[in-house]
Design goal:
Number of helices: 0
Number of strands: 14
Helix content: under 10%
Structural class: mainly beta
Radius of gyration: 15 Å
Distance between the termini: 10 Å
């Protein structure tokens, strides 16, 4: 199912996290018309190399909180605009429920981390308004940790 849908991506330069732990660096919110699914994401740092770390979790939410809107780019220029709603850097954290993480990533600032879903194993949101999944920073080893998150998802 998932491999045949339309694919969209966020520009990685838009997703820089210089805030404290518990902020959401990126999220994708479903609508009643579409079930977005996570295909691939990458965490990297845009800061001067240092031995600093952050921990991120990919978790489902039932309310997206408040974020800066991001317009995803379709991979196929013939595809329409995305139906799901995307955001970056939360000012009001989403309501994560259940609070059990689907993925837990410890990221060192000197390294790049990439996760790619095995075919058929994508993380899928329900076709329910205000539901989706987000990348929440749950622990920060240094203040002002600068991270970039590139997201590829499908509908």
């Amino acid at each position: 199912m998932a491999q045949n849908g339309r694919k969209y991506g966020f520009s990685s330069s838009l997703l820089t996290n210089t805030t404290a732990a518990t902020s959401t660096i990126a999220l994708v919110t479903a609508t009643t018309a579409v079930r977005p699914y996570l295909i691939d994401f990458m965490l990297s740092s845009a800061a001067t190399p240092a031995d600093a770390a952050a921990e991120y979790q990919v978790t489902r939410f039932t309310a997206p909180g408040t974020t800066t809107a991001v317009t995803p780019t379709p991979f196929d220029s013939g595809d329409p605009a995305a139906t799901s709603i995307c955001g970056k850097i939360s000012t009001v954290v989403p309501t994560y429920s259940p609070t059990v993480a689907l993925l837990d990533i410890a990221h060192n600032q000197r390294a790049t981390f990439r996760w790619v879903a095995a075919p058929g194993e994508e993380i899928i949101a329900p076709a329910t308004a205000s539901n989706g999944w987000g990348f929440q920073c749950v622990a920060l080893g240094a203040s002002g940790f600068v991270d970039v998150c590139s997201v590829i998802y499908g509908e």
